[in-house]
Amino acid sequence: MKPQMINIQKRMKEYGVTGLSMAVIEGGSISSTECLGLLEAETDKRVECDSIFSACSISKFLTSMLVMILTEQGILDVDEDVNKMLTSWKVPLHGYNGNVTLRNLLSHQSGVVDPEGSFIELDPKFGTPTMVDLLQGKTAYCKVPIELKYEPESDFHYSDAGFCIIQLLIEDVTGKPFSEVMRERLFQPLHMKNSTFSPQFQNVSCGHTSDGKVVEGKYPIYPYPAGSGLWTTPTDLSLVVVELVHALKGKSKLKISSSKAAEMIHPQGGKAWTGLGVFLDQNDKGMEISSLGWGVGFQCMMVAYPHLERGLVVMTNTDLGVHQLKGIIGDVYRAYNL
User: Are 327 and 320 within 8 A, CB to CB?
Assistant: First the structure.
């Protein structure tokens, strides 16, 4: 996969991107990495290939992989009514007849809609919410109780609240914090040494605005690990993509069956664009899967053709204010022409 001619450093300067890190997947393994720019503007802290960036909503891709692992182990069932498994809180149905399942939570078709202005970054004044308080509408991060707003599987609404429900369910059934389950079942087996939900701010990138300024607080944290809380590197994210590629061929390190892997990249609920924790696009090269992360001071993208065993992960520490494909990430994506 030879990229077209592109001077990434020149493009970074043109767009005003402070730091960028990327990894390329070919033949079912990581073939190259590139790390450019600074972790923090107006310092000498350079981006290295083990430098950690906020993955924002790419967290959802890893959460979906974790769900697949737990279903293989008989701990979860993607088609079971989640209210039968939740113990610390139940999804209020309010007269809707359908059951809420992990399948429709993962594909954003559960009937849950995020309240306007909800799921912002951590504010020290408010502290870290419990998932129960958040879902009950008792925090500044989500001031309205989460409940069904439409019949499950009848519509699509992208939802962080849905992934908060998934997180709570995993914690209820395992009796462990979500971050610990993720570390034990995914990070450690795949040797993801630079992935965390609690960055210690050593070799961790600051977020930046489009005019090059460091964002307030430097390191925006999202206290909803399953939906937006991951801090990681393109290399670590690529290890998860490679695991999915291998799982499709029946060679999963995590014992994910080829059938479960295939479910993740199969259109759900009659919606051609959504799988389980990933988005889908069928084109002349085959099935493309993607996951985008966009938060305060950061933008990133994971894209792959799992059946071709190719992929690309790009992470930046600058919010350009435009969709990833309209900024430097889109330029890199098109240059590599997966």
Answer: yes
Q: Are 194 and 207 in contact (CB under 8 A)?
A: no
Residue with tokens 């070799």: 203
Separation between Cα atoms, residue 249 and residue 306, nearest integer Å? 10
Whole-Å CA distances, 176 to 98, 121, 130, 171, 179: 29, 24, 14, 5, 8
> What is the DSSP-derived secondary structure letter of residue 31?
E
Looking at residue 184, its amino acid is E
pLDDT in tens, 289-309: 999 999 999 999 999 999 999
CA 291 to chain centre: 6
* Residue type, position 147, single letter: E
Residue type, 162: G
User: Phi and psi of 229, rounded to 5°?
Assistant: -90, 0
The confidence score (pLDDT) of residue 95 equals 85
CA distance 141 to 195: 24
Contact 296, 184 (CB under 8 A): no
Task: Give residue-wise pLDDT tens across range 229-262.
Answer: 999 999 999 999 999 999 999 999 999 999 999 9
Q: How far is CA 151 from CA 55, 93, 116, 162, in A?
A: 31, 9, 20, 14
